[in-house]
Design brief:
Elements: H1 3-9, H2 11-15, E1 32-33, E2 36-41, H3 69-79, E3 85-88, H4 95-103, E4 106-111, H5 115-123, H6 132-144, H7 156-159, H8 165-177, H9 181-197, H10 212-223, H11 226-249, E5 258-262, E6 275-280, H12 290-293, H13 295-300, H14 305-312, H15 329-335, H16 341-361, E7 365-373, E8 377-378, E9 381-382, H17 385-393, E10 398-407, E11 431-439
Parallel strand pairs: 2-10, 3-4, 3-6, 4-5, 6-7
Antiparallel strand pairs: 1-2, 7-11, 8-9, 10-11
C-alpha cells in the first residue's frame, strides 16, 4: 500500500469532520518535549458522528480503563487510510476494533481477558432480527427451562446468597444450552450484569469487592420480591442491549477483516503478519488486575478456577518479567524518587513489561504506534509514562510526532478521597496522553 500517497489524497475528506482542537502549540518548557510537542485536546469533542462516549455498543458493559471511541476515531482520521490493519495488543473491551469497523479498517485485537470475546461477539451481532414479542418470550423460556448451570468456584457461596442460586442456575443453564447465536448473545451480557447485581459484590466499582452498599443491596432484595426484580432487570437489560445494537448500526459499520485473540499473553506473543497502526492503552501502572476484576463474570461464563488462576498469574504484577535495557533517563530519574522497595519493584516490573512489549511488537508495525497512557502516581508523584515510552522507543527506530493531552472528565475507576493503600489524601490523574510515534524509514 502506498501509504503517503493515499494519506495525502484523503486529508481534506478526513478533516472536514474534525473540529479545531487547539491553537498553535506553546513553545515553553512545559509544552516542548523531546523535539516534539504536546497539544491539548478534548477527544470527545473531535468526532461529531459519534455524539457521546457511551454511544451504541461502546457501553454495553462496564470494563475498567476503557478507551472512548473518539480517541480511536481521531487516530484513524488523522493518521490512517481505510483498509489499513489496526492492532490493539491490550484490547480490553475491544473499542479499537468496534471503532475500526465504523471507518472501514481491518483490525486485530489481543487481550489476556477472555471476556473480550463475549463483548466483541455481542457488539458485532448487527441489528437483531428478533421482534419485541420474541424478546419478551426469552424471559418465559428462562423461567420454564429445566437446564441448570453452577460455576465450579470454591468461593461461590461467599459471593452469592444461597437463595439466589436456583434462579441464577436456571438462567445460566438456559443460556449455556442455547444454540441460536442471536438469542444467546442477546442474553449473555444482560445476564452477566444482573448476576453481578444479585451478588455480594459492589457492581459500581471495577473490582470484586464487598462494600456497605452491596451488603445493604442484598439485605433489601431478600426482604422483597427479589424474583420479580431479577426478571424485570433482565428484561430491561435485554432491551437496553437491543437498543445499543440498533444505535451502533446507525454508524454504518463496515464488513472488514478481523481477528480477535482472547486469553493471549501479549507480553510473550508474536505478530504473525505486519500491521499498519498499533493503537492501545496498556494496563495502568496503579491498576493492572483486570482478570481479578472480572472473576465473577468469568466463572459464570464457564471458565474453570484453574484457568482463571492461570490468567491472573500472567498479569504484570504477579509474574516474572525479564529485565531489558531501558533507554530512558527519565525512567531512572523518577525511579530514584521511589523509596519503598515494593513500589520500586512494581515500577520496574511495569516498565520492563510494557517497553519490552512495544519494542518487540513494533518490529511488525509499518507506520504508527499510538499509545494512550496517563501520568500515574506513585505516592502522589506523577510518573511521566509518555516521556519514558518516547525516550525508549527512539532507540528502536521510532520518532515522536506529537503527544495529545486529553483532560479526564470522568474516571469512576480511580475515584477516591483517600488512597486505601497509604491512608494519605489522594489525587488521581487528571489527564491522559496519546503518544504518537512514527516509524522511521
Amino acid at each position: 500500500m502506498d501509504y503517503e500517497k493515499l494519506k495525502n489524497s484523503q486529508l481534506n475528506l478526513k478533516f472536514s469532520n474534525i473540529k479545531e482542537i487547539t491553537s498553535e502549540p506553546q513553545q515553553n518548557n512545559a509544552e516542548s518535549f523531546q523535539n516534539g510537542k504536546k497539544i491539548s485536546v478534548l477527544f470527545r469533542n473531535t468526532i461529531p458522528e459519534i455524539p457521546y462516549t457511551t454511544y451504541g455498543v461502546f457501553s454495553i458493559y462496564k470494563y475498567p480503563a476503557k478507551f472512548i471511541p473518539q480517541v480511536i476515531a481521531f487516530v484513524l482520521k488523522k493518521y490512517g487510510v481505510p483498509g489499513m490493519r489496526i492492532f490493539d495488543p491490550f484490547a480490553g473491551y475491544g473499542t479499537a476494533g468496534l471503532t475500526a469497523k465504523v471507518y472501514g479498517y481491518n483490525y486485530q485485537l489481543w487481550d489476556l481477558n477472555p471476556i473480550l470475546n463475549i463483548i466483541h461477539d455481542t457488539a458485532t451481532l448487527g441489528r437483531p432480527k428478533m421482534k419485541v414479542n420474541e424478546l419478551l418470550d426469552l424471559i418465559d423460556c428462562i423461567k420454564n427451562s429445566n437446564k441448570e448451570f453452577i460455576p465450579s468456584w470454591s468461593n461461590l457461596n461467599y459471593w452469592f446468597p444461597e437463595q439466589f442460586l436456583p434462579i441464577l442456575s436456571k438462567a445460566w443453564g438456559f443460556v449455556h444450552s442455547e444454540k441460536e447465536k442471536e438469542k444467546k448473545y442477546l442474553l449473555l451480557i444482560p445476564l452477566l450484569k444482573v448476576t453481578k447485581y444479585f451478588s455480594w459484590s459492589d457492581e459500581k466499582v471495577h473490582k470484586l469487592y464487598r462494600s456497605k452498599y452491596s451488603r445493604k443491596k442484598i439485605e433489601t432484595l431478600l426482604k422483597g420480591n427479589w424474583k420479580n426484580v431479577f426478571y424485570r432487570m433482565l428484561k430491561q437489560e435485554i432491551f437496553s442491549l437491543y437498543n445499543k445494537l440498533v444505535e451502533y448500526e446507525k454508524l454504518s459499520p463496515k464488513e472488514v477483516e478481523y481477528e480477535v485473540k482472547a486469553g493471549i499473553d501479549t507480553l510473550t506473543a508474536e505478530l504473525d503478519k505486519k500491521v499498519d497502526i498499533l493503537i492501545t492503552s496498556p494496563p495502568y501502572l496503579q491498576a493492572q488486575e483486570y482478570i481479578r476484576s472480572t472473576k465473577l463474570e468469568l466463572f459464570w461464563l464457564g471458565y474453570s478456577e484453574a484457568y482463571i488462576k492461570n490468567l491472573s498469574n500472567k498479569e504484570i504484577p504477579y509474574r516474572e518479567v525479564p529485565k531489558i535495557k531501558i533507554y530512558s533517563s527519565t525512567f531512572f530519574e523518577y525511579r530514584k524518587k521511589i523509596k519503598e522497595k515494593h513500589l520500586r519493584s512494581l515500577y520496574d516490573q511495569y516498565f520492563h513489561a510494557i517497553l519490552s512489549c512495544f519494542s518487540r511488537l513494533g518490529e511488525k508495525v509499518e507506520n504508527y504506534m499510538c499509545i494512550f497512557v496517563g501520568p500515574a502516581k506513585v505516592r502522589n508523584n506523577p510518573i511521566p509514562i509518555d516521556e519514558i515510552i518516547v525516550e525508549h522507543l527512539k532507540e528502536f527506530g521510532w520518532s515522536h510526532e506529537v503527544t495529545f493531552v486529553d483532560k479526564i472528565l470522568s474516571r469512576v475507576m480511580f475515584e477516591s478521597k483517600v488512597n486505601p493503600a497509604s491512608g494519605m489524601k489522594d489525587s488521581r490523574i487528571k489527564t491522559e496522553h496519546l503518544v504518537v510515534l512514527k516509524k522511521q524509514k
